[in-house]
Design goal:
The chain has a single domain (about 10-165, about 190-225, about 275-285), classed as 3-Layer(aba) Sandwich (Rossmann fold). It is about 45% helix and about 20% strand. It has ten helices and ten strands. The protein has helices spanning about 10-30, 30-50, 70-75, 90-100, 140-150, 170-180, 200-210, 230-240, 240-245, 250-265; strands at about 55-60, 80-85, 105-110, 125-130, 150-160, 210-220, 225, 270, 275, 280-285.
């Protein structure tokens, strides 16, 4: 009898992530006005905490379709430099398109694993990672790499989701999908949206990676749209992790799952529209 696998397969997971974002990156960009309404204020707070100044060199990890790299490039100006990296070569190509549309020549993009940077030591003033670290199988390894790439006194700033209880936008659909898709309970060490959200965890990984003076604060991030149906459309198209969770289901069953998710999300509708709770942690530290 074969022994049941109990360890998390990081390499297989990373390949799935790359394929997922190569496929779903265009949708993430298409919904960028909505995503900026949700995450824009938090992103600006992140850039403040990173103390980004004109002329600096900035590294954005898991840059996705261009944020916070584009906003950072506007702050460093034409005399600065931003390198936007992501494990998905398809989505960083979209980030480069966004940068060029805005006339930002100071951005470059490269496909790169955030846990293994192909970059020289002490070459950046700040490292940013918005909504990426919690999806990495080895967050301490990743942060050690980012610290290596930072100049002495350089800053790191990350944003992660907090706990499921404070993020109904994601926890409620995920619980329905997990039940309907008959997915096993996550194994120890498995990354995911809430894997760094419990109190003290993010500070702990900063310290384990060798960073000094970690500071973490919670920021409310309600997800607002015109209706539950519109929210589910965003989730279906831009939140690839939900689709990945039920990729093995036949199309009619996936449609049925999304209908159940929409029914559950209607409890967050009111005459003023749709608003579902969310909360992020913004963490910063110094090399």
């Amino acid at each position: 009898m074969a022994e049941q696998q109990t360890e998390f397969d990081a390499a297989r997971y990373k390949n799935a992530q790359r394929e997922q974002w190569n496929k779903d990156g265009a949708a993430w960009r298409r919904w960028s006005p909505t995503l900026d309404r949700w995450y824009g204020d938090m992103t600006r707070q992140m850039l403040d905490l990173a103390r980004i100044q004109p002329g600096q060199r900035i590294l954005d990890i898991a840059a996705g379709a261009g944020e916070p790299a584009v906003s950072a490039a506007e702050r460093v100006g034409p005399g600065g430099y931003v390198l936007a990296t992501d494990i998905s070569e398809g989505i960083v190509e979209l980030a480069l398109q966004v940068a060029r549309e805005r006339g930002l020549q100071q951005i470059e993009t490269r496909a790169m694993d955030g846990e293994k940077l192909d970059l020289p030591d002490a070459s950046f003033d700040a490292v940013l990672c918005r909504l990426g670290l919690m999806y990495m199988p080895h967050p301490v390894t990743a942060l050690r790499e980012w610290r290596r790439a930072l100049k002495a006194g350089g800053r790191v700033c990350v944003i992660v989701f907090s706990t499921p209880e404070r993020n109904s936008w994601g926890a409620l659909p995920a619980s329905i999908i997990r039940r309907r898709a008959q997915l096993p309970t996550p194994v120890p060490g498995q990354p995911g949206p809430f894997s760094l959200g419990s109190p003290g965890v993010l500070e702990g990984v900063f310290r384990q990676a060798g960073f000094a003076n970690p500071e973490v604060s919670a920021v409310p991030v309600p997800h607002r749209t015109g209706s539950a149906a519109e929210y589910v459309q965003v989730a279906r198209e831009a939140f690839g992790a939900f689709n990945a969770m039920m990729a093995h289901l036949p199309p009619l069953e996936r449609e049925s799952v999304w209908n159940e998710v929409e029914d559950s999300m209607r409890s967050f509708e009111s005459p003023a529209g749709f608003e579902v709770p969310g909360e992020c942690l913004v963490g910063s530290a110094t090399k």
